[in-house]
Amino acid sequence: MSKEHVEEGVVIERLPDRRARIKLRKSSSCDDCSEKGFCNPFDSNTMTVLAEDPIGVRPGQRVRIAFRTEKERKAIAVLYIIPVIAIITGAFVGNALDPFHNPDTSAALFSVLFVIVTFLGIRYYSHKRYEKDNSFRPTIIEIVRERD
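The chain above was modelled as a monomer; its predicted structure follows.
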């Protein structure tokens, strides 16, 4: 069963591959959302998203976009849980190997190294695996009004 969350925003830029950049204002529904840290991690009042554009929008138009939420849990696991596992694993490996002859320093440096490598791996994997997968990308569903 597919669940959708609908928001309104303004088209900033139309891209040639039937996608558009949309600027959204943080709404009151963001406060109640369990995944608010996923799409707005720095707690700013606005965010920019890349959305599928099946209707052909133009910059300046106010549009409604739908976010499909069925795969958010998987994305959250990839972005948050896997790096935490990498930090803990790095600490154990650094402590066990102890190349700096100080277990705390070794654990800290290996934790940082493991989390950096993990984020680079996630970035590479996500670009390869999900670049063409539209189920993670919001879709423009209607034009609310022409340019403000």
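The helical segments are 28-32, 36-39, 72-97, 103-130.
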